């Protein structure tokens, strides 16, 4: 797997933002939509900040952009402070000229009976648009990408999943205690992510060094879904020095 290491997350985030901006501009030049796969969490925050700067200071427009977020907690109201809808609005969408109708985030409010159809429609919508042009990813300490926890199949699609205990512990600060973290989420599958034309997995800090080592150098296994990325030719890991510190 190609790995690029930068001195710090600020520098690395600018590189990733520029990759995304290049996709947007290229599609714009052809009169086409750019289809972006987006992640939430701490990792991409500075990428979004740089995209906002490019919009405000360098004329980057999001008018031709269609986004699909990886995941959302379930159940989750979109206006809750912990929702990924709120996260995306606050960290990106409220500050750029994207059309609201072009934003797609899994729906955390569905009745159980409608989840399967929603997930299928999410997949179909991505395919009908010609697939994701670029997908950005963080990595959880369980080795999850999106919320594809240990045990996820390489060909998995968008679906309702149960969050790993470690993932809920890592989210407990946002929710004021693990007991308040939803036990489930709707996530794009490993298979959905794999179909993206470019995939960039980002990781910062010593906290991620061990799981990054396993993802990049470990045996490919459903126990660490990020290891599946070793099988994809369109993947790049973008790391800061600390997250890369255990790579041989
Ligand atoms: C978020 C997502 C997750 C996170 C991962 C890392 O949409 O799909 O896989 O990328 O849990 O989270 P942070 O960035 O908060 O360390």
Automatic annotation (TrEMBL):
Occurrences of domain Glucosamine/galactosamine-6-phosphate isomerase (ranges): 8-231
Superkingdom of origin: Bacteria
Gene Ontology MF: a single term: glucosamine-6-phosphate deaminase activity
GO terms under biological process: carbohydrate metabolic process; N-acetylglucosamine catabolic process
Record keywords, A-Z: Hydrolase
Record-given protein name: Glucosamine-6-phosphate deaminase
Organism, scientific name: Rhinopithecimicrobium faecis
Whole sequence portion shown: 15 to 262 of 640
């Amino acid at each position: 797997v190609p790995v690029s290491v930068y001195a710090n997350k600020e520098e690395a985030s600018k590189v990733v933002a520029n990759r995304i901006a290049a996709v947007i501009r290229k599609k714009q030049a052809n009169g086409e939509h750019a289809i972006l796969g987006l992640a939430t969490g701490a990792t991409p925050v500075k990428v979004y900040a740089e995209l906002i700067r490019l919009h405000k200071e360098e004329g980057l427009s999001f008018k031709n952009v269609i986004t699909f977020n990886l995941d959302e907690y379930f159940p989750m109201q979109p206006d809750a402070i912990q929702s990924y809808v709120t996260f995306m609005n606050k960290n990106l969408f409220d500050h750029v000229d994207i059309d609201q109708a072009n934003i797609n985030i899994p729906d955390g409010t569905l009745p159980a009976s409608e989840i399967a159809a929603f997930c299928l429609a999410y997949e179909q919508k991505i395919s009908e648009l010609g697939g994701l042009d670029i997908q950005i990813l963080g990595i959880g300490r369980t080795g999850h990408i999106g919320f594809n926890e240990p045990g996820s199949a390489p060909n998995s699609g968008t679906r309702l999943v149960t969050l790993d205990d470690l993932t809920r512990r890592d989210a407990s600060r946002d929710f004021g205690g693990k007991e308040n973290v939803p036990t489930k989420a709707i996530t794009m599958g490993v298979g959905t992510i794999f179909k993206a034309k470019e995939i960039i997995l980002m990781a910062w800090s010593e906290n991620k060094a061990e799981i990054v080592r396993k993802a990049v150098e470990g045996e490919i296994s459903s126990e660490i879904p990020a290891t599946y990325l070793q099988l994809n030719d369109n993947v790049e890991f973008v790391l800061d020095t600390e997250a890369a510190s255990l790579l041989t």
